[in-house]
Design goal:
Number of strands: 9
Helix content: 25-40%
Largest sheet: 7 strands, mixed
Strand content: 15-25%
Structural class: alpha+beta
Distance between the termini: 83 Å
Radius of gyration: 26 Å
Order of helices and strands: HEEEHEHHHEEEEEH
């Protein structure tokens, strides 16, 4: 008697319920891992843009040295130098007088350096004032408004403790950044904002221009120009007058992650 091996002809397949379960699991895994992967990718992009900005300004500084007959413009902070508040306004808490260490203020040629940098860098738009209104800079916070947000107590930039904390960096308060300070837009979209009164010596850079998030410590970082004690070597130094917004990092930490 002939017996057919029926098992060889059975075809196996997923049921519709099993397919739905599988797709659900894939969706959950993707939902859990995609944000992390996206954040890592964005962090990598920001690091590359930061490195590009740092190299661009370092090379520009070297060109100012060459164009100035082998001499750096006298517009820099001295390595290790700092100032302390010696007198405060009794009402607002703002510092009205600073005591500086050795040769802290080296500003005699900042205007010349500022003009030279403008020539060297590929500047396509200039705002001498009203930088936000005139479209040079994105909508962003200042050093003072970031401190208010980070405190999270519902305070304001007019609070005495905020005024006191930003006294040495008043040029980077939000109203000065948006209304009083000069700024540039470079050909590659990079946005640069300068500290009022000492242009070129300390500045902030939005490394991806007007693209979001436009946040300190994410895509906005500060830099300054620093000399060694002998005032023979001058370099671009990361940091100065900034507080990272939530989830961000300081310019110094970003630099260290790339070069140390």
């Amino acid at each position: 008697m002939y017996h057919m091996n029926i098992s060889k002809h059975i075809k196996y397949a997923f049921t519709l319920a099993e397919v739905h379960i599988t797709l659900g699991i894939i969706g959950v895994v993707a939902a859990l891992t995609l944000p992390s992967l996206t954040a890592k990718y964005q962090s990598m992009i920001f690091k590359q843009q930061y490195k590009k900005v740092y190299n661009t300004f370092s090379n520009a500084l070297l060109k100012t040295y060459a164009n100035n007959g082998g001499s750096y413009y006298v517009c820099y902070y001295l390595e290790g130098a700092y100032s302390v508040c010696s007198e405060r306004d009794p009402v607002t808490g703002a510092c009205t007088s600073f005591s500086s260490t050795y040769g802290y203020d080296q500003n005699s040629q900042c205007d010349a350096l500022f003009s030279e940098l403008k020539t060297i860098l590929k500047v396509v738009k200039v705002c001498d004032t009203q930088s936000y209104k005139n479209g040079c800079i994105p909508d962003m916070k200042g050093y003072d408004s970031v401190l208010v947000d980070n405190k999270g107590d519902g305070g304001s930039t007019s609070d005495p403790d905020i005024i006191g904390s930003t006294s040495g960096c008043s040029g980077f308060r939000e109203t000065n950044i948006k209304n009083n300070n000069s700024s540039w837009v470079l050909a590659d979209g990079t946005v640069v904002g300068f500290y009022s009164g000492i242009p070129g010596k300390i500045f902030w850079v939005d490394i991806n221009g007007h693209k979001k998030p436009n946040k300190w410590g994410h895509d906005i970082f500060t830099f300054s120009i620093e000399s060694d004690v002998a005032q023979k070597k001058v370099k671009i130094k990361p940091g100065g007058c900034m507080s990272p917004e939530k989830g961000g990092q300081s310019s110094t930490d970003m630099f260290a992650s790339l070069y140390n």
